[in-house]
Structures are given as structure tokens and as C-alpha cells.
Amino acid sequence: MKSLGRLDILINMASIYQQTPNPDGAHWSASLDANAKSAFLFSIHAAPIMKQAGAGRIINFSDWLPVTGRPRYKGYTPYYVSKASVAALTETLALEFAPEILVNAVAPGPIAPPPNLTPEENARVIEATPLARWGGAEEIAKTVLFFVETDFVTGECIRVDGGRHLF
Fold first, then answer.
1. pLDDT tens digits for 56-114?
2. Which domains does the chain have, with CATH numbers?
3. What is the reported pTM?
4. Would you tell me how many other CB atoms lie within 10 Å of the CB of residue 71?
């Protein structure tokens, strides 16, 4: 704000994605703080600036699984709950900040294979994804750009998962 004089777009993309088979309070707090609380705090501090300007966009990052409502992997409870919180936060802030600020979320699925993925694991992801491939960062960028350019979509969470949620 000080250097550019305005704030038009806030992208809340911070995330901790960590398997926690036996989560404790520290795991819970770390996931909720990084994934949900940070989005909340940045949003409530950006909103007055955007409202004063008369417009703004807030784009959060959730995850395809909580948005689908189906936990599929054991050992990710703090992560799953924190990303479900981001989806709920998106809807409530869209209502709170309307009409000046549009608030939406991206829910990525298989975008880029992790570096330690085995060929067998990769084949299972491809087989379980109807579009039969990893999405790539450009698919996320296209979705973010849609949310930046739209003037009539708010409170939405779009899965960018190649149809993975259909299985």
C-alpha cells in the first residue's frame, strides 16, 4: 500500500501439507495457523483498503478433498480440517465483504507430482484422474486469472483437479 498506493488483489496461498499420523496440539495449531488463520488475518487487514477503493479480489487456496467433502487419505487430519476451514472462510468473507470485494477459492488436485513419487504412485494418480494427467501450474494460474477478471462470481471454490473428485 505504501509503495504502490493501492491494493487490488490478495492471494492467500500459504500452506503446510504434512502427514501427521498421530497429530498433537502443535500439529493442529501449525496447520490451522498457516492454512486458515493466515488467510483470515490477511483478508481482514486487506478488506478496509479494498473497500475504501471501492473494489478488490481475495483469492484463497483450499484443497480438492475438503471441497469435495470426502477425506481419502489417513494421517492428514489437521491439513484436511484447515483447508475445509479455508473453504468456509471463503464463503463467509464473500458475504461479509460484498459488494465491493469478491472472495473466491481455488481447490487444487493433482497439479504437480511430488519429487519423491514412485512410478507406481504416479501411475495410480494418472489412472484416478479422468483427464489422465497432472494439471501443471498454468491451470492454477488460469483459475486465479478467472477470479481476478470476473465481476459476478463470489463465494465460490473451484476444484482444479482434472475431474479427480468424480471417483
1. 999 999 999 888 877 778 888 999 999 999 999 999 999 999 999 999 999 999 999 99
2. 9-166 (3.40.50.720)
3. 0.93
4. 14
